[in-house]
Design brief:
single chain, alpha/beta, Molybdenum Cofactor Biosythetic Enzyme, Chain A, Alpha-Beta Plaits, Maf protein, 3 domains, 5-stranded mixed β-sheet, 17 strands, globular
């Protein structure tokens, strides 16, 4: 199966938004063995959008659209698909009732313009959206499946995996694809590639490395004619990747970095207090991004760094005492403005309490990157010390 991904919205064309949806879908399609031919961005123009859709439907078996299914006049994806199908949309009363209920559950009355989101045509199967007001569409036009989903990433991700992909997968034939994703911390992408060495040169299974905000991800995709063969090849390769990257792997599932750390603390019945200086409170914010932080994170303090008076060890001890936690983490990022607009200095991380560790990291980067790196450094120090506890 071949596919197009069409990202819709003038805000994309104007450079006001980053198209993370296309990146997500490219990875998802690769994992399914679906060949992605093109990723196209098109603005809120009915004629152009219809033309792009027609080209895509003629050149591929699957066309995935994100964006343009809101309630306003410039949301034109439904109109374009209807034009391509030669059908006239009508309001589906069952769908509009669900949208009204969505608003009512939040104590609001549905604006009448949202009834547009309940449009359907005969060629369309409605894809439910449990976290938003815009249902998706799955249409069959000629020999192509055309899927329309919201542009809001959290809505699109869920609709794709729960609604669209199962319907598409049911019609897939040919080779079977199986994937795994290992996430690492405390090592750069080039170092990961060097350790994997010849594994990344093999065409089968495919191994890709990706530098992300939460570390370097290693994605392994195996294919075979039978599912058991693909799974066997995948398992063998994952085991070898694990052997080479053992000290750096922190997750092989969908848990976030924050949740991995919180789970490790909870498993050991430990609470944590955090004190940061010069790091923008990024490590504390990372942990608090997960509901699981309740009962584990006792407290957080953050302030500007004072090079003359801030010591990470003192912050760690103060955090323990102030918040009454089992573990205290102190983080300092002491930097000065250097050349080329970059800051340079040192990040220090100290973990104290029932377990102890202290690490120092020289750094030269943009200020926001220093803050992000301080959180990643702290996460790695805490991860490693907990592994020994």
């Amino acid at each position: 199966m071949r596919a197009y991904v069409i990202s819709i919205g003038s805000e994309l064309i104007g450079g006001h938004l980053t198209d993370t949806n296309a990146t997500f879908l490219a990875q998802e399609l690769a994992a399914q063995g679906i060949e992605l031919l093109h990723v196209i961005q098109v603005g809120d123009d009915l004629e152009r959008l219809t033309g792009v859709l027609a080209t895509a439907a003629a050149g591929a078996e699957l066309v995935i659209c994100t964006g343009g299914i809101g309630p306003t006049d410039d949301d034109l994806t439904r109109e374009a698909i209807s034009t391509l199908a030669g059908e006239t949309p009508e309001i589906d009363q069952a769908t509009v009732a669900k949208i009204r209920e969505f608003f009512a559950q939040r104590g609001l009355e549905m604006p009448e313009r949202n009834a547009k989101q309940a449009w359907v045509i005969p060629s369309v199967e409605v894809l439910p959206n449990p976290v938003g007001t815009a249902p998706g569409w799955l249409a069959r036009i000629g020999g192509a499946i055309v899927v329309a989903m919201p542009g809001v990433p959290r809505e699109m991700f869920r609709m794709w995996r729960e609604q669209a992909l199962p319907r598409i997968s049911a019609g897939l034939t040919g080779r079977v694809y199986r994937s795994a994703n290992l996430r690492t911390l405390g090592i750069g992408e080039s170092a990961v590639s060097q350790l994997l060495d010849e594994l990344t040169q093999r065409p089968q299974p495919y191994i890709g490395t990706y530098a992300k905000d939460d570390g370097v991800h290693v994605r392994i995709t195996a294919s075979a004619d039978r599912s058991e063969d693909a799974e066997a090849v995948l398992a063998e390769t994952v085991a070898e990747v694990r052997r080479r990257l053992t000290d750096y792997i922190y997750a092989d599932d969908d848990r976030s970095l924050a949740l991995v750390l919180l789970d490790a603390l909870r498993k050991r019945a430990l609470t944590i207090g955090i004190a940061e200086a010069g790091s923008g409170g990024r490590f504390g914010s990372l942990l608090l991004s997960e509901p699981a932080s309740a009962g584990v994170v006792r407290g957080i303090s953050a302030r500007d760094a004072d090079p003359a008076n801030v010591v990470a060890a003192d912050l760690a001890q103060t955090a323990r005492e102030q918040f009454g936690s089992d573990v205290g983490v102190g983080i300092t990022a002491v930097v000065v403005l250097g050349t080329q607009g970059l800051y340079e200095g040192t990040i220090e991380v100290v973990v104290s309490g029932t377990t102890h560790a202290a690490e120092s990291f020289p750094i030269r980067a943009a200020y926001q990157e220093i803050q992000r790196r301080s959180a990643m450094n702290a996460a790695d120090v805490l991860r490693l010390v907990l592994a020994k506890t």
